[in-house]
Each structure stands twice: as C-alpha cells, then as structure tokens.
Amino acid sequence: MDKSIQRLKVRRAFISLSVAALMASIAAVLGFVFAVQPVWSTSAQMQAEREANTSNSIAPAAPSQTLASVTWEEAVAGYMASYDDEPILHELAAFEGVEAKEFFKLRQGALMAPTEPNDVVGSVKLYFIPGHDLFFFRLENFDVPVGPGYRIALSKARAPRHAKDIRANGYRFLASMDRFQGSRNIPINPDTVTSSDDRPTLYRSLVIWNAEYDVVIATATLN
Q: Which of 24, 81, 131, 204 could form a disulfide with 158, with the two C-beta atoms 3.0–4.6 Å apart?
C-alpha cells in the first residue's frame, strides 16, 4: 500500500513538472510574438520613413514641380484623346476708348521650339495701353504642339532651352494654356506691377512650358 502511494506521488510530481514546462514554453512563444514582433515591425516602418526622407532630401528643389506618375509621352497621348482643338481668336481691338493704333509696342519676338526640328510658329508682342497703365502680351498666329499642363511665363533668361534655365534665372507666371492655335491677348494685372522690378520689360523672353515635367515647348526672345 505504501509503495502504491509513493508511486502516485511521483507520478503527480512528474505531471506537475510537465505542465509547468509546457506553460513556460507557451509564455515564451507569446512573449516573442507580442514583444519581439512589434519591434521588428516598428523598425521596418522607421527604415521606410528614413528612406523616404532621404529620397525627398535629394529630390530637385522646384516649387511647382511634382513627381509625375507617367512619362511625358504618355501624358501627351492621354491628353490628346479629349482636348479642345478649337483655336483661340482674340482681336487686337480698342480698349476702353483707346484705339489699338495708339498702343505702344515695347517688345516683340518670334516663337521657336527649343530644339530642332522647329514645330512652333507665331509671334509675341508686348504692348502698353496709355492712360490705363496696362501691359499686355499678344501671342499672334501661333501654333504649338498639343500637350497638358502648359504654362505661359516670362523668363529673365534670353532663350531658355531647358526648364533649369527658367528656374535658375527667375520667371513670372502669366497664364495657363489649353488652346494651341490662334491669337491671344494676355493682360497683366496692374496691381501686380508694384515696383520697377516688376515691369514686364525687364524680362528677356516669353516661355511656354510644362512645370511638372520640366518640358520647354516654345520660347520667344523679346527684343
């Protein structure tokens, strides 16, 4: 009888030790999952953020430039599927009692493509309307390649061929462009010409470009 009781005690002790070992193993696994795994995940997120920050820090500093998701050729092809092909037809006419023949023509130039072959035609003229202190540019009989996101701007570079030339020398935005043929008048708000440094006569060229892709479409040196 004593031997039977002794064997039962030994068996219970063995079972208790086995259960304790099993619980310890389970606790270790749970500790690994809930303690170690989040550290790995957080480290991966931190690494991704660090790489993103590094990428941003070495990207070109361009106020109006963003990272395009498609190529320029793809953007043009997509735009041509739905753009308005009607020409714009502004006349050079009298302005609030001042006849067109009384306008002062201050600058002029011919629109040209930045590279060969030249697929751009048209002229650019800068006028001043006396009595109203109003400057305006006239793009006359122009025809430029169709494309999205065009901006018309004045540049202090004489004949910029690349967007970096426009950015480096300073520019002034005039208007967006979504008609690619015809004649167009672009008035300059007198309230934006607050000093002699703002006068459009100080700029050396007019440019048509896409700022997102940094593609120059046309330039006209103003003489």
A: 204
If you ran DSSP here, which 8-state letter would residue 98 be given?
B
Provide the CB-side half-sphere exposure for 99 (13 A, CA): 2
136 Cβ neighbours under 8 A, 6+ residues apart: 126, 127, 129, 185, 186, 187, 188
The span from the CA of 53 to the CA of 59, in Å, is 10
Q: Mean pLDDT, to the nearest integer, of 165-184? A: 92
* pLDDT, tens digit (0-9, with 9 covering 90-100), for 118-130: 999 999 999 999 9
- Collapsed DSSP state (helix, strand, coil) of residue 139: strand
Helix boundaries (H) for the chain: 2-31, 37-58, 72-80, 163-169
The pTM for the full model equals 0.68
